[in-house]
Design a protein that fits this description.
52% of the residues lie in helices and 12% in strands.
Length: 297
């Protein structure tokens, strides 16, 4: 892969910081510039070696930039797209790491129409419950999926470049339309986060919350792990993808209503049948997605 002379990362937390570290580890970037809203994370990112320098204005940051990664919460996309628009060079390639695509692409068309051939949306499927520069790690994307959602106006060379840089981070590349992306991830990512946040919020607000949490064990930990995720980021994701998310939530509420009816009826065999089907589906998925590592490796 052709080396990146200057990489600009907006949002130097887990996602943006790991991207920078992975490319640095691969020896594929000469200089990394960090941009963000607050000086503290930027200073920490530089201290940790995620970035080489901090820029406080887009004109300076984007001068001579080869590649820009927009890794801030998706709720900031419109403002950031408007801010970078006057300063993008004709050859600068822009990609993002947003967990939703409809709102991101609307902002791209609204503000970056003059640069559409070089603006290629993407989404790395590699989040974690921890955030910030200290959570960044070079191996975050190794073996993880990255979904590229190209625009009709994108140059094939720009799409290939974005695919190449994610592949250099160790990612496995996939492509789908933005609409399909948002429907799929509403079901398998956004809904689980919403449910986990909701359950923990419910229990935390009860009078006996301390007692409840004192008895919570590994099952509760595993189910609610994602409730420790970045609140602002997940607020933006849920609001941005609310139409698809509401459809998935309604479907889940129907499933809960069915389970409630079985409990009211005391229908053990029907409950077991649901649990058995769910267990087999979950284990089949887990065996494919996370194959056991051979002993000693």
């Amino acid at each position: 892969m052709k080396k990146i002379d200057k990489l600009v990362v907006c949002g130097v937390g887990l996602i943006g910081g790991s991207f920078a570290l992975a490319l640095r580890k691969a020896g594929l970037v000469n200089r990394i510039v960090g941009v963000g809203r607050r000086p503290e994370p930027l200073a920490k990112a530089r201290e940790l070696g995620l970035i080489d320098e901090i820029s406080t204005d887009w004109a300076t940051a984007l001068q001579g930039a080869d590649l820009v990664l927009l890794a801030m919460p998706v709720g900031q996309m419109d403002a950031v797209a408007a801010a970078i628009a006057p300063h993008l060079g004709p050859d600068t390639i822009v990609t993002d790491a947003g967990s939703t695509k409809r709102d991101v692409i609307e902002a791209i068309y609204r503000h970056l129409g003059h640069r559409l051939p070089n603006v290629v949306p993407a989404h790395p499927i590699a989040g974690a419950e921890k955030s910030g520069p200290v959570a960044a790690r070079a191996e975050l994307y190794a073996g993880r999926k990255v979904v590229v959602t190209p625009l009709p106006e994108n140059r094939p060379e720009a799409i290939a470049r974005v695919r190449d840089v994610w592949a250099a981070c160790g990612a496995v590349l996939h492509e789908m339309s933005p609409q399909e992306h948002d429907r799929v991830f509403a079901a398998v990512s956004h809904l689980p986060h919403l449910l986990a946040f909701g359950l923990v919020h419910d229990l935390a607000g009860r009078a006996n919350a301390e007692q409840l949490f004192s008895y919570a064990a590994s099952g509760f930990r595993d189910f609610t792990r994602v409730a420790g995720s970045h609140p602002e980021m997940w607020r933006d994701i849920c609001v941005a993808n609310r139409h698809s998310l509401l459809a998935e939530l309604d479907a889940y509420l129907s499933e809960l209503a069915y389970l409630r009816a079985l409990l009211v009826a005391g229908d053990g065999p029907a409950l077991e049948a649901v649990f058995d089907e769910a267990s087999r589906a979950r284990n089949t998925w887990a065996d494919k997605a996370f194959p056991a590592t051979p002993s000693g490796e």
